[in-house]
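Take a careful look at the protein record below. Let me know whether the structure tokens fit the sequence:
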Amino acid sequence: MADEQVTQSEHITEPDDQETVAPTQPQTASSESDQIRNATQHADAQAAPAQETAQKTSMTATRTEDSKTNVPSPLAFAKKPTRHPVAAPAPAIYSDEDVKTAEAFGRVDDKGNVFVKEGESEREIGQFPGVTNDEALTLYAKRYLDLKARLDLFATRLKASNIKAREIDESIKSLGQETDSPAVVGDIPALKAQYEELKQAGEAKKIELAEARKRAVAKAIEERTAIVEKAEALTASLGESTNWRSTADKFRSLFDEWQEHQRTSVRIDKADADALWKRFSSARTEFNQRRRKWAQQRDAARTEVINAKEAIIKEAESIKDSTDWGATSHQFNELMDRWKSVGRAGRKEDDELWARFRAACDVFFQARQADREQMSSSEKENLAKKEELLKKAEALVPVADEAAAKKARQTLASIQEQWDQIGYVPREDMRRIEGRLDAVDRQIKAVEDAAWKKRDPEADARVSSFATQLKAQLDELDAKIAAESDPAKKSKLEAEKATKEQWLNAVK
């Protein structure tokens, strides 16, 4: 703003140190050019040819005299093309006291030449013919006040926080040229003294600005270095557990912060800016390279997982139609354990692969369930048949004597033969019905044993030996039953055990 105001003010005063100007009204500077044109046009319109000759003679003399002081004639000045300077603010209106104080430093001679006192000497600064001496003096006094106003404006501008060193240099240079030998009437030494003070103040302000910039640059470097250190810390923390997407978002945020800092902070010296950018860029580059390497390893691992799961699916599909329920169930359990151990291949791929594997499993296990439901129905029918046989067996007891026991034994043997041919019953009912049949057998056996002991002691010894063998076989069967996982085989072993328990009961 100061530069603009100073520049605009400069258009008010002509650059020539010594000037010849037309008459003007003292109220405003804007009426000067109009009065110059009016005075000249009036003189041209009223002048006679003879007068023109005299005027030319006078003008020639004036030019001769003016050439010594480099001042143009009034006619030459009037014929100058109208200037169109940059729009300037409205000229200041000065008090009569200020104007009179300035006028005290000047005078106008009889020829219209204007002089200004400068110390002990005086200097001719221009010519203002055709007007009163007071009017001429007033014009140059106002020009002095204009120049002083520009110095005052610069003094105010120096206090602004947004002034730049270049603006100070340009303003001091411009004001120095204007105050060197100004074509104004006023206290020139005071004007120059004020300029020197402003010049010193400007230099001090430049030093202040330089120090402020130095501090601002140091702060900007510190802030940008903090951004760099955050980026380097992120790179240093990369490892197997790194969340790459989250870390990429953090790097993107730091880059946005870097750009915002460039736009809003003071400009950093190129060397420092380049060094910091190199560090920041290196951190980003290392992150991108390691993330790319991680992505390649992840893709390779996923491919390996996909291949392993494809092999599991292929194996599952090859056994899904098996009716060997026990062995195939075991195989499917092993395949499931392998599936869990190979890891993940990505959500989309895993979902597709799992759907295929699950379909193969469902085929087998649904078929097994259907078979079990069918078997359960037949086992319930077998249970009903065995319940009927139990009624017949339990009707044989109690027996009164050896003859009744012998007859009951024969009937029970027939019942047991039918029992074995019926087949399996539901597991939860097997022990119950087997126990009831065994109870009938034990009661008959008790009567038989009592009669046997009365007749043959040696036979008792043989029976005891046979009973010992049966007990050993029963113990062996118990171990096999406990170790067997196949339901069908286990049921068969339990049936064999039940038969030998009946034998044992019979020989006791």
